[in-house]
Amino acid sequence: MAQYLIVSDVDGTLAYDSTTISTRTSQVINQLLDAGHLFYLATGRMYALAAAMADQIGPRAEIISANGAAYEFSGQKTHHLLGAKALAAIEAAAAGNGLTAVYFTDMAVYYVTTPPPAIEQMLYSFAPKDVTIDVRQLPDITALQTHSDEITNGIIFSLSDPEALANTREQLAAQALLHLSASDPTNIELIPKHVDKANAILELQAKTGIPKDRTIAFGDGLNDLGMLKAAGISVAMGNAVPEVKAVAKYVTETNKEDGLAQFLLRFFDKEES
Question: What Enzyme Commission number(s) apply to this enzyme (predicted)?
Answer without folding.
Answer: 3.-.-.-, 3.1.3.-
